Fold this sequence. Notes:
Strand content of chain B: 35-45%
InterPro entries (chain A): BON_dom (IPR007055)
CATH topology of the largest domain in chain B: Histidine-containing Protein, Chain: A
Strand order of the largest sheet of chain A: 1-2-3
Number of domains of chain A: 2
CATH class of the largest domain in chain B: Alpha Beta
Distance between the termini of chain B: 37 Å
Shape of chain A: rod-shaped
Order of helices and strands of chain A: HHEEHEHEEHE
Domain BON (chain A): 24-93
CATH architecture of the largest domain in chain A: 2-Layer Sandwich
Structural class of chain B: alpha+beta
Organism (chain A): Arachidicoccus ginsenosidivorans
Number of strands of chain B: 10
Radius of gyration of chain A: 36 Å
Helix content of chain A: 40-55%
Largest interface: A-B, 28 and 25 residues
Number of helices of chain A: 5
Strand order of the largest sheet of chain B: 9-8-7-4-10
Strand content of chain A: 25-35%
CATH architecture of the largest domain in chain B: 2-Layer Sandwich
Number of domains of chain B: 2
Order of helices and strands of chain B: HHEEHEEEEEEEE
Pfam families (chain A): BON
Protein name (chain A): BON domain-containing protein
Number of helices of chain B: 3
Radius of gyration of chain B: 17 Å
Largest sheet of chain B: 5 strands, antiparallel
Distance between the termini of chain A: 124 Å
Oligomer: heterodimer
Number of strands of chain A: 6
Amino acid sequence: MQLKRMLPAFVMATALAVAMPSCKSKPSDADIQTKVQTAISATPGVSADVKDGVVTLSGLVGSESDKAAVETAVNNLKDAGVKSVVDNIEVEPAPAASVAPAADALTQGVADATKDFPGITATVSDGVITVTGEIEQSKVKTLKAALDALNPKKTDMSQVKVK
Amino acid sequence: MAALQDKYKELIDAVNTSGVTGAQINESDGVLHITGTAPSADVKNKLWDIYGKIDPNFLTGDVVLNVNVATAVAGAKVKVVTDSTNLNIRKGPGTDQPIVGKAAHGEVITLVGKANEQWWLVRTNDGEEGYSYAQYLTPVE
């Protein structure tokens, strides 16, 4: 009699015991969201959406390494229920300012020195002056002396055509 | 090393025997660098003539000859040695500076000072003062 009364409780307990692990292995998207939010909080500018365990990352970061770090951090949350990660994070392009260095003294000096030689173009690279174009024979010495006076590593006039 | 110094032996000898002070002759990366101060504009011109004889039109680029002239000091008279044109006198040392005067080809003017080896402060006989490009000025001895 006592056993009969206990049976429903036993069944319920068994049912719960079976149900619990399955509940544990299937956290809600909201639970996942909480964990992901913590993981991505270290990188400002990134947001995450969770749907059926699939995390979609979006936003704008400063570098490729930031992007990779966030993706790895979220991928590591497999235990928390993350099935996969879609990484839509964009990387901000580097500022263009670092591409064009300011004209140095040698470059300015070359511009001054070649001003009076209309057919001549001179460029500076790593301390070497490279001259191209055409020049009258009578002016070659003046040009070479003006450029040498700037103390370059080399004054390369091998491409100059002397008229 | 020796090859370049052999090629330009006549030039190096001239530097060493014509009273060039502070002469330095160094070779780096296949280029012979010759610097120093010549006692006169004539000596500087002579060195350039020798250089041009060894390397016609200076096209090889294996020498950087950077010789100043000792007499190009404040107060000296300098001659305008442009090709044929007038020499610009500018407000400051640079071709981006406004032109404040001109000196005629062949005119003898006064060297007042130097902003650097490229830009000299000059004064014309009319009293115009400003900066001119040093390559077009040579001291009058």
